[in-house]
Amino acid sequence: MVRQARSVRRPGRRRFPVVKELLMWLLALLILIPLFLVAINSLKTEAEADLMNLELPKQFMFDNYANVIKTGKMVQAYRNSLIISAGSTLVTSLFSAMGAFVLSRRRTKLNRLIYYYFIIGLIAPVNFIATIKVMQMTQLFNTFHGIILLYSALMIPFTVFLFYGFIQSVPKELDESAMMDGCRSLQLFFRIIFPLLLPVTITCVLINFMNAWNEFILPLYVFNKSDYYPVTLAVYSFYGTFISSWNLVCATIVLTTLPIVLVYIFGQRYLISGMTAGAVKG
């Protein structure tokens, strides 16, 4: 009788994973279909792209990409986005790791207050008028290092939050033994602690790089010269010029999203593991 009851319950248990899997596929299609629509229309002629459907093109127009790269200044936009994204990611990850290490190891009331100040930065809105005014007064407006510092200031609170939770899992005995061996503070951090932070560091690098690459509003306010435009503003400017050529517009969107999609695909494993480790160990 027990075996029969178990055999009756098994089919019911098997249905739920199938239903969940189908639900996940339906949710994935909500993202994949628009991506496929943009990709397939980027290879059509202007007349075919105006229909904006999922039909395959009669002739694949790979020249659309060459035209976009030439007329849309995409090479320059890629260079600008790489400078901004890599620079802000490097500054954010380095200083956030150092700051989180100090806040985690020295549990004073002042450091606790500073940590809460960073947490407030996760939810505090950006005052664009005051920010732009300060950047103009400090000669940071319309410069690469200005927007790198701005991105870093916005991304540091979340990055400190991730590093702080992960560093708490690192035993303090490592600090004590290293100090007994003659390590100074910077040597202790870079030689002993920082290599142990590799999972959460990769997570922070991926998140911050993708956020900086996809940012549109801040460059729109900070830059008033097209020579400094990142890829997001290059697409915006190209769309204003070639609004009737949807095949070329779709080609610019593909060129803009392709690098970040590749970064996410190859770094997805590290992204999930780092987020989980930081949450559990914190």
Give the structure's gist in a few sentences:
The chain is an all-alpha fold.
Let me know the largest β-sheet.
none
User: Structural class of the secondary structure composition?
Assistant: mainly alpha
Poorly predicted residue ranges: none
Q: DSSP helix count? A: 13
- The termini sit apart by 48 Å
- Give me the CATH architecture of the largest domain, please: Orthogonal Bundle
CATH top level class name of the largest domain: Mainly Alpha
Order of SSEs? HHHHHHHHHHHHH
The proportion of residues in beta strands is under 5%
Rounded mean pLDDT is 86
- For CATH, the homologous superfamily of the largest domain is named as MetI-like
Kindly identify the CATH topology of the largest domain: MetI-like fold
Structural domain tally? 2
Explain what you see.
The protein has 282 residues and is mainly α. The chain has 2 domains: 2-41; 63-281, MetI-like fold. Helix content is 79%, strand content 0%. The chain is built from 13 helices and no strands. The longest helix has 40 residues, at 2-41. The two termini are 48 Å apart. 28% of the residues are buried. Keywords: Cell membrane, Membrane, Transmembrane, Transmembrane helix, Transport. It holds the Pfam family BPD_transp_1. Its main location: membrane. It is a multi-pass membrane protein. The chain crosses the membrane at residues 21-43, 82-103, 115-135, 147-167, 188-213, 233-266.
What is the topological layout?
Layout: H1 2-41, H2 46-51, H3 63-71, H4 74-105, H5 109-120, H6 128-137, H7 144-167, H8 173-180, H9 185-196, H10 198-214, H11 217-222, H12 231-241, H13 246-281
Helix pairs in contact: 1-13, 3-13, 4-5, 4-7, 4-10, 4-12, 5-7, 7-10, 7-13, 8-9, 10-13, 12-13
InterPro entries: MetI-like, MetI-like_sf
Family: Belongs to the binding-protein-dependent transport system permease family.
Transmembrane segments: 21-43, 82-103, 115-135, 147-167, 188-213, 233-266
